[in-house]
Amino acid sequence: MKILFVLEYYYPNIGGVEKLFxxxxxxxxxxxxxxxxxxxxxxxxxxxxxxLNGVKITRLNLSNRFLFTFFSIxxxxxxxxxxxxxxxxxxxxAFPAWLVAKIQRKKSIITFHEVWGDLWNELPYLSxxxxxxxxxxEWFILQLKFNHYIAVSEFTxxxxxKANISPEKIIRIYNGxxxxxxxxxxxxxxxxxxxxxxxxxxxxxxxxxxxxxAQKFLHNHPEAKFKLIIPKTPKAFYLKIxxxxxxxxxxxxxxxxxxxxxxxxxxxxxxxxxxxxxxEGFCFAAVEANMLNVPVITSAKGALKETVSTRFIExxxxxxxxxxxxxxxxxxxxxxxxxxxxxxxxxxxxxxxxFYERLM
Length: 360
Known about the structure:
single chain; alpha/beta; seven-stranded mixed β-sheet; 13 helices; 19% strand
């Protein structure tokens, strides 16, 4: 099969979406399929054209993902002629991928990671205008008629149905990881209680709750440590986070752009991982923490009830006080337990392969 992936961001950008598509594209390439990715060149140090683990990558000189929505169309048109299927994702890459598929009469697929709907009005760090614009764009891409929709969880599938997408067009394929990548000789217990957040800087991630709750908890427990593993992009958002972190002092450890091995080491050496999100369509961080045997404090929003397992604490209320109370419970090791749920990459890839074959 010849499949063109149109993605606003791709590896080495950090995020669950990028993790999914890197693993999927490389696995499909190993199976002998012709895989091409068209994406943005968010870092000028990245090559414009590259072959990476069997995947052809074309990066367009569009550092802004919003520019990618409109200025990528002609380049995608030229590349798409050689491909049978165009596969994209929500949000910014959706329109150019759909338009090119329509013009060239290619089969179109979109993977939806989450549908926020009215949640846009509740999210922090966004102006009233941004909330309206982003909400409108989500509504707009939900009006586009893709041939098929892939939901990464039952929660996301349900949200798509609520948005009037025909259930017959939706298939649920969970994201997956390679368990062998997360094997550790033993769990590294930190000397002092250490709670960690790792992941991208997103308006839905609950950072507005996490930082003030962390400050209060650290004040009450001077021996405790807070680890924040985040990228330095988007720059404006990063600077805003730095500004509110300035009062924490030596109890805070800040990390950026860690290698996978370094990330595993830091997460493993944590007492718990924080996931106070407003919503999650899947949440790689929850699954990765689970595989590393690190407990999770979760908001239980969106798909988190599906993906969180083993040891965890659910916030009783989604606010600063709710997270502070959950941290106190974690400090006392008062976790809830349920059997581990595995989300295996090999299962995800197999389901995608079967789906593509049916489509062809």
